[in-house]
Amino acid sequence: MRPEPLSRLLESVMSQTQVPDEVLIIDGSTNDDTGSRFRESGNNIIKYHKVPTEHRGLTKQRNYGIERVQDDIEIVAFLDDDTILQPDYFENLLKTYSDFPNAVGVGGYITNEVSWEKSSQENPADLNHFYYDGYRRTESSRYKLRRKLGLAQTTQPAIYPEFGHGRSISFLPPSGKIYKVEQLMGGVSSFPLTILKENKFSEYFEGYGLYEDADFTLRLSHIGDLYVNTAAKLEHHHDAAGRPNKYNYGKMVVRNGWYVWRVKHRKPSFKNKIKWYQITILLTAIRFLNIFTTSERKEAFTEAMGRTVGILSLLFNKPK
Question: What global pTM score does this model have?
Answer without folding.
Answer: 0.91
